[in-house]
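Section 3.1 - Work completed
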Amino acid sequence: MDPDRIEEAMARLLKLVPFYRSSVRPRAFRDVPEVFRDVPEGYGRKMGRAKGKAGRRVAGAAKKKGLPPELVGRARALAEEKRERMIADGRAALARVRERKADIAGAFWDIGDDLQVLEAPGMAKELGHADLYELCWAEAGFAAELVDELLKVRKQLTRAQAIRLGTHSRAAAFLRLAAATPADDTAIELFERGVTTPQGERLPPRAGVRAAKRAAKEFRQARPKKTRRGSTTTAEERAVGARIQRALKKAGAHATVEVVANRPGQPSKLRIEILVTETAALKRAL
């Protein structure tokens, strides 16, 4: 066989089957070819990290023998240094996240400030659009609901309060909640201390958007229903209608009299249905 090919095969075997000068050796070491005897010192530790059956055998042997104290101390120092560096990097990243979060929270308040400028009478038409909502949709992709929310946040909150609430969605939700509660609450107060709904559910401090919307809905549903003035007739008006009905019947007319409610604050109407041929009876009754 070609000697070069033999050396190449031996080199491959040397990588796959590690032998140790100081630890693990075959029982019959004298039967091992010379090429395997001249293994460099420390080669087994490198191969201990190799994958596969041979690598696991090497790692197990190194574990049983133990590592030098100076090497263990060095490894621990490197691990602690890596841990401290990771903690420092994480804290720096969190600081940047908080800073940029404040930038985002303040940005929607600033957009609301700009929308106030665009809301000026005639501004949208001068820019080639029918109104503010068409302008914002065409030029910025803002839906009408978002425009209303941003304007409400700008008009009812300070920039610091908007940043405190975090997002325009949460700011708008707590503004709706403040408008729904019977007490004179502000959005920031409700966000900081929470509130108990009419159904007895507790909205915790710093609640999310969905919880705030659900609480606002419960407060709105608990409001007393408003009665419409003028939607019903009074007892006096119904008595007048009954007297006219009796008078028409006494006069011989087959008429119907109905008292109909008018607009709020206005007297009720009187509706009489009678045959044309009985108009004389109507004159006698009235």
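Second construct:
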Amino acid sequence: MNKFLKEFKDRGYFYQCTSEDELSNLLDKKSINSYIGFDSTASSLHVGSLLQIMCLRLLQKHGHRPIVLLGGGTTRIGDPSGKEETRKILSEKEIENSEWSGQGVLTFPNGATYEGEWANGFMNGKGTFTWSDGKEKTGTWVNGELQE
């Protein structure tokens, strides 16, 4: 069994799979991409979000590529309050009025990192962006752009 898949199962993250042998073989042959999308209109991340982030981190530890999406289609669709209802498509105004923000370290698929403040899925506030080659830009960011 693939090392990642074994650790994934040992940690209790794995419930079922259509073809576990094929998945194990694929993971042995090549690096895969996996993603999670977060609704940036939610008031905060929650323990369910942490579990998904932990799964992506484990995937990265074993040489695969995690991708975290903030906003975009995930935000437009929103979080389903009731499983029996169709998700409500949010307007641009509803998305703009959300105040999803935080502070911490974001790691990008290419190895670059951003440490600082963020809001509504963008680098917003004081922070440092470090490219994968080690070059840094520090300052105040507005909607992902460094202000000169």
